Sequence to fold (723 residues):
Amino acid sequence: MKKIIALLLAGLASVTGAWAAGDGVAWDRFPTQKLTDAAALQHGAKLFSNYCLSCHSASYMRYNRLRDIGLTDEQIRDNLLFAGEKVGETMQVAMNPLEAKQWFGAAPPDLTVIARSRAAPGQGSGADYLYTFLRTYYRDETKATGWNNLAFPSVAMPHVLWQLQGQRRATYADEKDPHDATKTLHVFKGYEQVTPGSLSAREYDEAVGDLVAFLQWMGEPMQKDRVRLGVIVLIFLALFTVVAWRLNAAFWKDVK
Amino acid sequence: MAEFKEATAGAGVGEKVTVWFENRFPTAFSEYKKHLSEYYAPKNFNVWYFFGSLALLVLVIQIVTGIFLVMHYKPDANLAFASVEYIMRDVPWGWLVRYMHSTGASAFFIVVYLHMWRGMIYGSYRKPRELVWIFGVLIFLCLMGEAFFGYLLPWGQMSYWGAQVIVNLFAAIPFIGPDLALLIRGDYVVGDATLNRFFAFHVIAIPLVLIGLVVAHLLALHDVGSNNPDGVEIKATKDASGKPLDGIPFHPYYTVHDIVGVAVFLFVFSAVVFFAPELGGYFLEYNNFIPADPLKTPAHIAPVWYFTPYYSMLRATTDVMVNVLAVLTALGALAALVGGGFSGKGKLAVAVAAVVAVALLKTFDAKFWGVVVMGGAVVILFFLPWLDRSPVKSIRYRPVWHKWLYGVFVVFFIVLGYLGIKPPSDAGTLISQIGTIFYFGFFLLMPWWSRIGEFKPVPARVTFAAH
Fold:
C-alpha cells in the first residue's frame, strides 16, 4: 500500500513538473502597485495610444471609459484621439486585417482583454507576461522583422518601442546539458546594448510598467470597484451569517 | 370542492384575507403543509445535508442571471465574443451578473458533487429512494449538458475547441458517428449554426427539462421521506398522532437551518465573484479571453474542471487499456463461471457474453471505447441502488475497511480530475488508468464487496444531541 501511494505521489510530482516548464524565459513580476497609481495608468494610456493603437485595436474599450483613470473628455480628445473619432467610440484601428496579415504574417490581435488571456498557471499573470515580453526584445537578423523576443520566440511583431529602449543584441553560450552529457544547450547569457535608447534601462522598465498597468486595467476596467464592493458584500454576509446562526439556534434550542 | 370556510367573528384583516385565499386556492395551502410545514424531516441532519437546498439556490441564481445575460448576449459567431465584453463593460452591473453566472456554473458542480457524495455515504439511494436517486442522476446529466452547451456561448478559444473536441467524440461511435456529429454541429465544423443551436439548448430546452426533473426529485423525496446520516427510517417510529418521533417540521426548523448554509455558501461564492472571478483559470479559462479562431488550435485543450475526472477516463482508454479491459472481462467471466452459482444455461450465457464483449473490444477503435468508458462512468450511477447489497445504509455502521474504500474512491476521483486538467504524460496516463479501473471496479464489484465484513448494529432511533 505504501509503495502504491509513493508511486502515485511520484507520478503526480512528475506530471506537475512537466506543466510548470513552459515556453520561453521565466516571467518577471509586474509591479502591481502601478494598478492603483493614476499617473502611471494615464501615462500607460498615452503610450498605448501612441505606440500600440496604430496596429492593434481595443475594440471593446470606449475612449470615454478613460474617465475612470482620471482623464476628462477634453484631455482624451486632445491627447489620445488622432483621426477624428468621438470620445464615445471604441478604440478601432484603420489597418485592414488582410493587409496586416500580409505584412506581419499574422493580424495584430485586439488588445482589450490581452492581459487576461495571457496568464498561465505556474508562470504568472497576464501582466507578468506582457511586462516580460515588452522588455525582452533583441536584434536578430535571421528574422524577417530583424527582431526576436525571449518571452515569445520568433514573434511576428517588431520591437515597436525600440526608440525608447535602444537596440540590444542577445549573447548566447553553448553549455553542456546537465541531464545529458552528449547534448549541448544554447543558453541565454545577457544583452549587449548596441545603440542607446531615449530612455535609460530603469526609465524604460518604468514606462513598460505603466503601459502594462494600463493594459491590465483595460482588461477589466471595473476591477477596483469589484474588489471595493466585494469587501462590503463580505462584511454584510459575515454579519448575516451570525444572525442566521443565532436565529437557527433560537429555533433549535427546544428540539430534544 | 371543499366546504367554504368562514372567518371567525371579529377576525383581523390578515385572517380574512387568508380565509379568502384558502377558499379559492386550497391547493396552495395543502401543498404548503405537505412540503414545508408538515413535511417531517429527520432531526439529525448534518453538514452534508446543506447541499440539496444550496443546489436549488444555485439553480435560481443561474436562471435569474441567465435571463439578464440573454437580454444583452448575441448568439452570432461574429458578435458573441464582443457581446460578452459589452456585458462586462457597458451594461450596468453586467460584470456582476456575468461573474455570478460563470461562478455559479462551477458552484453548481461543487454543490452537486458534494450532494451526490452525501447520497453515496449514507445510502440515500437505497429502497425506497431509488427513484429519488435516478431523478438526481438525470439532473446531473442535464447539468453536464447545460454546462457543455453554455460553455460554447462566450465564443472564446476554449469554448470553440472544447466543443470541437467533445462533438468529435460522438464521431467515434461506429456507423452513425460521423452523421451524428454533423447533426449536433449543424455544419462540418463548429460554426454559427452550432452556436445558435447550443444557445437554444442552453436557454430553453435543457432548463425546462432540468426544472421538471428537480420537481420530480423533490416530489419523490417528499413521498418517501428524507434519509439521514444514520440510515434509520424515521417513519418506523411514530407517536400517537402519527408523526415520526425523530422528525421535525421542515419549516421552520430546516428553513432557518438552511439559511445558515445559504449564508456561508454566499460568503464563499461572493469571495470568488468579487476577488477571484477567474479562480486561477479554473472557473474562467485564460484562453477563453481570446476570440474563437477556427484556424488556430490551442496547444492544450482541457475541459473545465468539473468534466475532467471523466475526461481523464477518456484519455486513459488507450489501446493498452482496451487490452487490459479485455483481460479483465475474461477474468470476470471466469470468476462468474466458477463461483457465480449459475445454472448450465446461465453459464453458457455468461461465456457467450464475455466472448462477444472481448470480440467487440478488439473490433472497434480505442477512441470509441474511451467514449463508452466516459459515458459509462456516469450511466453506472443509475444502477447504484441495485449494486449496493450492504445490510446497512449508512457508512456509520459499515466495516472500517468500507470507509477506507470510499476514501480511496474519492481520492481517485479528485486525482482523475486533477490529471484531466494537465497535459497528457506517461505517468499521468498510467495513474488515470489505475483510477479508471478502480472507479469501475468500485461499482461493478459492489454487489460482492458491499456484503462482506462486520457491520455494526443500526439503532432503532437516530443519534441526536440537542444543540
Summary: Chain B has a mean pLDDT of 94.
